[in-house]
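Write out this protein's structure.
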Amino acid sequence: MPRLKRQPPVEAVDISTIDTLSFQERLAIGLERLKAERKLTNRELAEQLGVHEAYISQVTRAMRDVKLSTLDKMQREWNVVIEDLLRITEADLHRIAVWKARRKKQRGAATDS
Protein backbone atom coordinates (compact mmCIF):
# COMPACT_ATOMS: atom_id res chain seq x y z
CA MET A 1 0.00 0.00 0.00
CA PRO A 2 1.47 3.43 -0.94
CA ARG A 3 2.38 5.77 1.89
CA LEU A 4 0.46 8.99 2.10
CA LYS A 5 2.35 12.20 2.66
CA ARG A 6 1.56 13.80 5.96
CA GLN A 7 0.28 17.29 5.34
CA PRO A 8 1.53 20.01 7.70
CA PRO A 9 -1.06 21.95 9.67
CA VAL A 10 -2.42 24.87 7.73
CA GLU A 11 -3.17 28.25 9.25
CA ALA A 12 -6.59 29.57 8.32
CA VAL A 13 -6.65 32.63 6.11
CA ASP A 14 -9.01 35.53 6.45
CA ILE A 15 -11.42 36.50 3.68
CA SER A 16 -9.55 39.81 3.35
CA THR A 17 -6.67 37.76 1.90
CA ILE A 18 -8.65 37.43 -1.32
CA ASP A 19 -8.23 41.13 -2.06
CA THR A 20 -4.45 40.90 -1.75
CA LEU A 21 -3.96 38.15 -4.33
CA SER A 22 -2.18 39.03 -7.56
CA PHE A 23 -3.42 37.98 -11.01
CA GLN A 24 -0.84 35.16 -11.01
CA GLU A 25 -1.96 33.95 -7.58
CA ARG A 26 -5.64 34.08 -8.54
CA LEU A 27 -4.95 32.02 -11.65
CA ALA A 28 -2.86 29.54 -9.65
CA ILE A 29 -5.71 29.04 -7.18
CA GLY A 30 -8.22 28.75 -10.04
CA LEU A 31 -6.08 26.12 -11.76
CA GLU A 32 -5.75 24.18 -8.51
CA ARG A 33 -9.55 24.24 -8.21
CA LEU A 34 -9.94 23.05 -11.82
CA LYS A 35 -7.40 20.26 -11.26
CA ALA A 36 -9.23 19.12 -8.13
CA GLU A 37 -12.68 19.25 -9.74
CA ARG A 38 -11.55 17.31 -12.81
CA LYS A 39 -9.01 15.09 -11.03
CA LEU A 40 -6.23 16.18 -13.38
CA THR A 41 -2.47 16.46 -12.97
CA ASN A 42 -0.18 19.20 -14.22
CA ARG A 43 1.01 16.78 -16.89
CA GLU A 44 -2.54 16.25 -18.15
CA LEU A 45 -3.26 19.99 -18.17
CA ALA A 46 -0.03 20.60 -20.09
CA GLU A 47 -0.83 17.90 -22.65
CA GLN A 48 -4.29 19.38 -23.23
CA LEU A 49 -2.74 22.80 -23.90
CA GLY A 50 0.26 21.57 -25.85
CA VAL A 51 2.75 23.13 -23.42
CA HIS A 52 5.49 21.73 -21.19
CA GLU A 53 4.59 20.31 -17.80
CA ALA A 54 7.23 22.57 -16.20
CA TYR A 55 5.42 25.62 -17.59
CA ILE A 56 2.08 24.55 -16.07
CA SER A 57 3.83 23.73 -12.81
CA GLN A 58 5.26 27.25 -12.66
CA VAL A 59 1.89 28.78 -13.51
CA THR A 60 0.12 26.76 -10.79
CA ARG A 61 2.72 28.03 -8.31
CA ALA A 62 2.28 31.67 -9.48
CA MET A 63 5.90 31.76 -10.59
CA ARG A 64 5.28 32.45 -14.26
CA ASP A 65 3.22 34.86 -16.32
CA VAL A 66 0.71 33.45 -18.76
CA LYS A 67 0.46 34.57 -22.35
CA LEU A 68 -2.94 35.71 -23.59
CA SER A 69 -2.84 32.99 -26.22
CA THR A 70 -2.43 30.39 -23.44
CA LEU A 71 -5.38 31.87 -21.53
CA ASP A 72 -7.42 31.65 -24.71
CA LYS A 73 -6.40 27.99 -25.15
CA MET A 74 -7.39 27.27 -21.54
CA GLN A 75 -10.80 28.74 -22.16
CA ARG A 76 -11.37 26.76 -25.36
CA GLU A 77 -9.77 23.44 -24.33
CA TRP A 78 -11.31 23.26 -20.87
CA ASN A 79 -14.64 24.87 -21.70
CA VAL A 80 -14.26 27.43 -18.91
CA VAL A 81 -14.61 31.16 -18.73
CA ILE A 82 -11.32 32.77 -17.77
CA GLU A 83 -13.15 34.97 -15.28
CA ASP A 84 -14.13 31.79 -13.43
CA LEU A 85 -10.49 30.76 -13.11
CA LEU A 86 -9.67 34.18 -11.68
CA ARG A 87 -12.72 34.43 -9.40
CA ILE A 88 -11.84 33.59 -5.82
CA THR A 89 -14.54 32.97 -3.22
CA GLU A 90 -14.78 31.96 0.42
CA ALA A 91 -14.90 28.35 -0.78
CA ASP A 92 -11.28 28.79 -1.91
CA LEU A 93 -9.98 29.97 1.48
CA HIS A 94 -8.71 26.52 2.47
CA ARG A 95 -7.05 26.10 -0.93
CA ILE A 96 -5.38 29.52 -0.46
CA ALA A 97 -4.20 28.53 3.03
CA VAL A 98 -2.67 25.30 1.72
CA TRP A 99 -1.08 27.12 -1.20
CA LYS A 100 0.42 29.82 1.05
CA ALA A 101 1.72 27.21 3.53
CA ARG A 102 3.42 25.34 0.67
CA ARG A 103 5.03 28.56 -0.59
CA LYS A 104 6.17 29.48 2.93
CA LYS A 105 7.73 26.04 3.35
CA GLN A 106 9.51 26.34 -0.02
CA ARG A 107 10.87 29.78 0.87
CA GLY A 108 12.08 28.44 4.22
CA ALA A 109 13.84 25.52 2.54
CA ALA A 110 15.48 27.90 0.06
CA THR A 111 16.88 30.11 2.82
CA ASP A 112 18.13 27.08 4.78
CA SER A 113 20.31 25.94 1.86
